[in-house]
Amino acid sequence: MPTATIDLPASYEALELTHIKLSHYPVGAPAVTPVVLISLNRPEKNNAFTPQMADSLTQVFNLFHIDRRVKAVVLTGAGRMFCAGSDLEIGFGDGGGRAADFRDIGGRVALAMHRCHKPTIVALQGSAVGVGMTMTLPAAVRICHEKSKYGFVFTRRGLTIESCASYFLPRLVGFSKAMHLITTGGVYPPQNKYFGDLFSEVLPDAAQVLPRALELAQDVAENVSPLASSMSRALMWEGPRSPEEAHLLESRVFHHMVGQGDYKEGVGSFLEKRKARFETDPREDCPTDFPWWPETKISLEPSASKGTSSKL
Length: 312
Prior knowledge:
The chain folds into two domains: 12-222, Alpha-Beta Complex (2-enoyl-CoA Hydratase, Chain A, domain 1); 224-271, no CATH class. Helix content is 34%, strand content 12%. The protein is built from nine helices and nine strands. The longest helix has 18 residues, at 206-223. It is globular, with a radius of gyration of 20 Å.
Protein backbone atom coordinates (compact mmCIF):
# COMPACT_ATOMS: atom_id res chain seq x y z
CA MET A 1 0.00 0.00 0.00
CA PRO A 2 1.60 3.32 -1.03
CA THR A 3 2.34 5.84 1.70
CA ALA A 4 1.87 9.58 1.47
CA THR A 5 4.95 11.70 0.82
CA ILE A 6 5.75 15.00 2.50
CA ASP A 7 7.94 17.67 0.93
CA LEU A 8 10.63 18.82 3.35
CA PRO A 9 11.45 22.54 3.29
CA ALA A 10 14.79 23.91 2.16
CA SER A 11 14.51 26.31 5.10
CA TYR A 12 12.31 25.95 8.17
CA GLU A 13 12.50 29.69 8.68
CA ALA A 14 10.55 30.16 5.44
CA LEU A 15 7.54 28.13 6.62
CA GLU A 16 4.39 30.16 7.25
CA LEU A 17 3.13 29.00 10.65
CA THR A 18 0.60 30.42 13.07
CA HIS A 19 1.61 31.35 16.62
CA ILE A 20 5.06 29.75 16.46
CA LYS A 21 8.35 30.76 14.88
CA LEU A 22 11.12 28.46 13.63
CA SER A 23 14.82 29.40 13.61
CA HIS A 24 17.94 27.59 12.46
CA TYR A 25 20.85 27.31 14.87
CA PRO A 26 23.54 28.59 14.62
CA VAL A 27 21.74 31.83 13.81
CA GLY A 28 22.01 33.02 10.22
CA ALA A 29 22.37 29.59 8.61
CA PRO A 30 20.64 29.75 5.19
CA ALA A 31 19.64 26.07 5.09
CA VAL A 32 18.33 23.52 7.58
CA THR A 33 20.67 22.97 10.55
CA PRO A 34 20.96 19.92 12.85
CA VAL A 35 19.43 22.00 15.65
CA VAL A 36 16.11 23.78 15.03
CA LEU A 37 14.55 26.22 17.50
CA ILE A 38 10.78 26.47 17.96
CA SER A 39 9.50 29.60 19.70
CA LEU A 40 5.92 29.90 20.93
CA ASN A 41 5.19 33.28 19.41
CA ARG A 42 2.30 35.09 21.09
CA PRO A 43 4.26 37.23 23.55
CA GLU A 44 1.43 39.78 23.77
CA LYS A 45 -0.76 36.96 25.17
CA ASN A 46 2.02 35.33 27.21
CA ASN A 47 2.13 32.60 24.54
CA ALA A 48 -1.33 31.34 25.51
CA PHE A 49 -2.04 28.06 23.71
CA THR A 50 -4.44 28.05 20.75
CA PRO A 51 -5.75 25.45 18.27
CA GLN A 52 -3.66 27.14 15.59
CA MET A 53 -0.54 26.85 17.74
CA ALA A 54 -1.31 23.17 18.29
CA ASP A 55 -1.69 22.63 14.53
CA SER A 56 1.63 24.37 13.86
CA LEU A 57 3.51 22.42 16.54
CA THR A 58 2.06 19.10 15.40
CA GLN A 59 3.03 19.89 11.81
CA VAL A 60 6.65 20.74 12.59
CA PHE A 61 7.25 17.78 14.91
CA ASN A 62 5.93 15.49 12.17
CA LEU A 63 8.38 17.14 9.75
CA PHE A 64 11.32 16.81 12.15
CA HIS A 65 10.45 13.14 12.63
CA ILE A 66 11.15 12.35 8.97
CA ASP A 67 13.88 14.95 8.29
CA ARG A 68 17.27 13.31 8.72
CA ARG A 69 18.95 16.74 8.58
CA VAL A 70 17.45 17.58 11.99
CA LYS A 71 19.17 15.98 14.99
CA ALA A 72 17.72 17.89 17.97
CA VAL A 73 14.89 20.34 18.67
CA VAL A 74 14.74 23.20 21.19
CA LEU A 75 11.35 24.58 22.29
CA THR A 76 11.06 27.94 24.04
CA GLY A 77 8.71 30.91 24.38
CA ALA A 78 8.97 34.48 23.11
CA GLY A 79 8.83 37.17 25.76
CA ARG A 80 8.75 36.89 29.54
CA MET A 81 6.58 33.75 29.90
CA PHE A 82 7.02 30.33 28.40
CA CYS A 83 3.28 29.65 28.18
CA ALA A 84 0.32 30.91 30.20
CA GLY A 85 -1.69 27.77 29.43
CA SER A 86 -4.67 27.60 27.10
CA ASP A 87 -6.19 30.83 25.84
CA LEU A 88 -9.34 30.84 27.97
CA GLU A 89 -10.85 33.63 25.89
CA ILE A 90 -11.07 31.05 23.08
CA GLY A 91 -12.08 28.19 25.37
CA PHE A 92 -12.78 24.59 24.45
CA GLY A 93 -16.28 24.70 22.99
CA ASP A 94 -19.51 23.83 24.79
CA GLY A 95 -19.00 20.11 25.31
CA GLY A 96 -21.37 19.25 22.48
CA GLY A 97 -20.93 16.28 20.17
CA ARG A 98 -19.70 12.78 20.94
CA ALA A 99 -16.89 12.42 23.46
CA ALA A 100 -15.48 9.62 21.29
CA ASP A 101 -14.90 12.14 18.50
CA PHE A 102 -12.96 14.61 20.66
CA ARG A 103 -9.16 14.79 20.73
CA ASP A 104 -7.56 17.37 23.04
CA ILE A 105 -5.20 19.64 21.13
CA GLY A 106 -2.45 19.45 23.76
CA GLY A 107 -2.48 15.68 23.43
CA ARG A 108 -1.93 15.95 19.69
CA VAL A 109 1.18 18.05 20.32
CA ALA A 110 2.45 15.80 23.11
CA LEU A 111 2.09 12.69 20.95
CA ALA A 112 3.81 14.36 17.98
CA MET A 113 6.73 15.30 20.25
CA HIS A 114 6.78 11.85 21.86
CA ARG A 115 6.71 10.00 18.54
CA CYS A 116 9.36 12.23 16.94
CA HIS A 117 12.68 10.38 16.65
CA LYS A 118 14.52 13.63 17.42
CA PRO A 119 14.90 14.62 21.10
CA THR A 120 13.32 17.85 22.31
CA ILE A 121 14.98 20.11 24.87
CA VAL A 122 12.60 22.64 26.42
CA ALA A 123 13.89 26.04 27.52
CA LEU A 124 11.28 27.35 29.97
CA GLN A 125 12.69 30.85 30.13
CA GLY A 126 9.67 32.04 32.10
CA SER A 127 6.66 30.78 33.98
CA ALA A 128 4.36 28.09 32.61
CA VAL A 129 1.03 26.63 33.73
CA GLY A 130 -1.56 24.21 32.42
CA VAL A 131 -0.85 22.96 28.92
CA GLY A 132 2.30 25.08 29.06
CA MET A 133 3.57 22.41 31.43
CA THR A 134 1.88 19.26 30.16
CA MET A 135 3.03 19.67 26.57
CA THR A 136 6.66 19.63 27.75
CA LEU A 137 6.41 16.27 29.53
CA PRO A 138 7.37 14.09 26.51
CA ALA A 139 10.56 16.14 26.01
CA ALA A 140 13.95 14.59 26.77
CA VAL A 141 15.17 17.58 28.83
CA ARG A 142 13.56 20.58 30.55
CA ILE A 143 15.65 23.60 31.62
CA CYS A 144 14.02 26.44 33.55
CA HIS A 145 14.46 29.71 35.46
CA GLU A 146 14.64 29.57 39.25
CA LYS A 147 12.54 32.71 39.84
CA SER A 148 9.70 31.66 37.52
CA LYS A 149 6.74 29.59 38.67
CA TYR A 150 5.22 26.44 37.23
CA GLY A 151 2.05 24.50 37.86
CA PHE A 152 -0.63 22.09 36.69
CA VAL A 153 -3.63 24.32 37.40
CA PHE A 154 -6.38 22.31 35.68
CA THR A 155 -8.41 21.45 38.78
CA ARG A 156 -8.54 25.16 39.66
CA ARG A 157 -10.22 25.79 36.30
CA GLY A 158 -12.72 22.93 36.57
CA LEU A 159 -10.74 20.77 34.14
CA THR A 160 -8.87 17.48 34.17
CA ILE A 161 -5.29 17.00 32.98
CA GLU A 162 -4.64 16.47 29.27
CA SER A 163 -1.69 16.24 26.83
CA CYS A 164 -1.19 12.62 27.96
CA ALA A 165 -0.09 13.97 31.37
CA SER A 166 -1.75 11.09 33.23
CA TYR A 167 0.83 8.85 31.53
CA PHE A 168 3.93 11.06 31.58
CA LEU A 169 3.75 13.01 34.86
CA PRO A 170 3.64 10.09 37.37
CA ARG A 171 6.48 8.38 35.52
CA LEU A 172 8.61 11.52 35.66
CA VAL A 173 8.03 12.67 39.25
CA GLY A 174 6.39 9.66 40.96
CA PHE A 175 2.74 9.06 41.79
CA SER A 176 2.78 10.79 45.17
CA LYS A 177 4.25 14.04 43.83
CA ALA A 178 2.03 13.91 40.73
CA MET A 179 -1.03 13.45 42.96
CA HIS A 180 -0.08 16.52 45.00
CA LEU A 181 0.56 18.68 41.92
CA ILE A 182 -2.73 17.72 40.28
CA THR A 183 -4.90 17.65 43.41
CA THR A 184 -3.84 21.11 44.59
CA GLY A 185 -3.43 22.70 41.15
CA GLY A 186 -0.78 24.79 42.87
CA VAL A 187 1.88 26.98 41.27
CA TYR A 188 5.38 26.62 42.68
CA PRO A 189 8.98 27.65 42.07
CA PRO A 190 10.93 24.95 40.22
CA GLN A 191 13.00 23.91 43.25
CA ASN A 192 9.84 22.79 45.09
CA LYS A 193 10.05 19.17 46.21
CA TYR A 194 6.82 18.25 44.41
CA PHE A 195 8.53 18.67 41.03
CA GLY A 196 11.18 16.13 41.94
CA ASP A 197 13.69 15.98 39.07
CA LEU A 198 11.25 17.22 36.43
CA PHE A 199 13.63 20.05 35.55
CA SER A 200 17.10 18.86 34.58
CA GLU A 201 18.64 22.26 35.25
CA VAL A 202 17.40 25.33 37.13
CA LEU A 203 19.29 28.49 36.21
CA PRO A 204 19.44 31.78 38.17
CA ASP A 205 19.02 34.12 35.19
CA ALA A 206 16.20 33.83 32.64
CA ALA A 207 18.61 34.96 29.92
CA GLN A 208 20.74 31.85 30.55
CA VAL A 209 18.00 29.32 29.86
CA LEU A 210 17.75 29.37 26.06
CA PRO A 211 21.55 29.56 25.43
CA ARG A 212 22.05 26.57 27.74
CA ALA A 213 19.33 24.58 25.95
CA LEU A 214 20.88 25.39 22.56
CA GLU A 215 24.33 24.45 23.85
CA LEU A 216 23.02 21.10 25.03
CA ALA A 217 21.13 20.49 21.77
CA GLN A 218 24.26 21.29 19.75
CA ASP A 219 26.26 18.82 21.82
CA VAL A 220 23.64 16.12 21.23
CA ALA A 221 23.51 16.88 17.49
CA GLU A 222 27.28 16.64 17.14
CA ASN A 223 28.09 13.72 19.42
CA VAL A 224 25.10 11.38 19.82
CA SER A 225 23.85 8.71 17.44
CA PRO A 226 20.25 9.64 16.46
CA LEU A 227 19.38 5.95 16.17
CA ALA A 228 20.87 4.98 19.54
CA SER A 229 19.21 7.98 21.22
CA SER A 230 15.78 7.29 19.75
CA MET A 231 15.85 3.56 20.53
CA SER A 232 17.11 4.18 24.09
CA ARG A 233 14.27 6.61 24.82
CA ALA A 234 11.78 4.14 23.36
CA LEU A 235 13.14 1.38 25.59
CA MET A 236 12.41 3.52 28.65
CA TRP A 237 9.00 4.88 27.63
CA GLU A 238 7.72 1.73 25.95
CA GLY A 239 9.48 -0.85 28.11
CA PRO A 240 8.23 -4.24 29.25
CA ARG A 241 6.65 -5.16 32.58
CA SER A 242 9.45 -7.17 34.22
CA PRO A 243 13.26 -7.20 34.43
CA GLU A 244 13.32 -10.49 32.53
CA GLU A 245 11.26 -9.09 29.66
CA ALA A 246 13.44 -5.95 29.69
CA HIS A 247 16.54 -8.13 29.41
CA LEU A 248 15.18 -9.96 26.38
CA LEU A 249 14.05 -6.78 24.64
CA GLU A 250 17.24 -4.85 25.39
CA SER A 251 19.29 -7.80 24.14
CA ARG A 252 17.41 -7.83 20.81
CA VAL A 253 17.80 -4.09 20.32
CA PHE A 254 21.47 -4.14 21.42
CA HIS A 255 22.19 -6.98 18.95
CA HIS A 256 20.61 -4.90 16.19
CA MET A 257 22.69 -1.83 17.12
CA VAL A 258 25.97 -3.77 16.97
CA GLY A 259 25.26 -4.43 13.31
CA GLN A 260 24.72 -0.76 12.46
CA GLY A 261 27.20 1.73 11.06
CA ASP A 262 26.83 4.06 14.03
CA TYR A 263 28.33 1.45 16.36
CA LYS A 264 31.38 1.05 14.13
CA GLU A 265 31.67 4.82 13.78
CA GLY A 266 31.23 5.44 17.50
CA VAL A 267 33.98 2.99 18.44
CA GLY A 268 36.25 4.05 15.58
CA SER A 269 36.00 7.75 16.40
CA PHE A 270 36.75 7.03 20.07
CA LEU A 271 39.84 4.96 19.26
CA GLU A 272 41.03 7.47 16.67
CA LYS A 273 40.32 10.43 19.00
CA ARG A 274 38.14 12.29 16.50
CA LYS A 275 34.55 13.53 16.34
CA ALA A 276 32.04 10.90 15.26
CA ARG A 277 30.05 11.20 12.04
CA PHE A 278 26.83 9.31 12.64
CA GLU A 279 24.83 8.58 9.49
CA THR A 280 22.01 6.21 10.44
CA ASP A 281 18.37 7.27 10.12
CA PRO A 282 16.08 6.15 12.99
CA ARG A 283 13.19 5.66 10.58
CA GLU A 284 15.13 3.49 8.15
CA ASP A 285 17.63 1.69 10.40
CA CYS A 286 15.51 0.78 13.42
CA PRO A 287 15.04 -2.89 14.44
CA THR A 288 12.66 -4.91 12.29
CA ASP A 289 10.24 -5.33 15.21
CA PHE A 290 10.07 -1.58 15.96
CA PRO A 291 7.68 -0.53 17.35
CA TRP A 292 7.81 -3.53 19.69
CA TRP A 293 4.66 -2.44 21.52
CA PRO A 294 1.07 -2.60 20.22
CA GLU A 295 0.22 0.84 18.86
CA THR A 296 -3.15 2.33 19.77
CA LYS A 297 -5.05 3.94 16.92
CA ILE A 298 -6.06 7.50 17.77
CA SER A 299 -7.44 8.63 14.41
CA LEU A 300 -11.14 9.35 14.17
CA GLU A 301 -13.31 6.85 12.36
CA PRO A 302 -14.86 8.35 9.21
CA SER A 303 -18.61 8.72 9.21
CA ALA A 304 -21.05 9.01 6.35
CA SER A 305 -22.52 12.43 5.55
CA LYS A 306 -26.18 12.97 6.36
CA GLY A 307 -28.44 11.94 3.56
CA THR A 308 -26.01 9.43 2.06
CA SER A 309 -26.37 5.69 2.14
CA SER A 310 -23.96 3.58 4.13
CA LYS A 311 -24.57 0.59 1.86
CA LEU A 312 -21.92 -0.37 -0.67
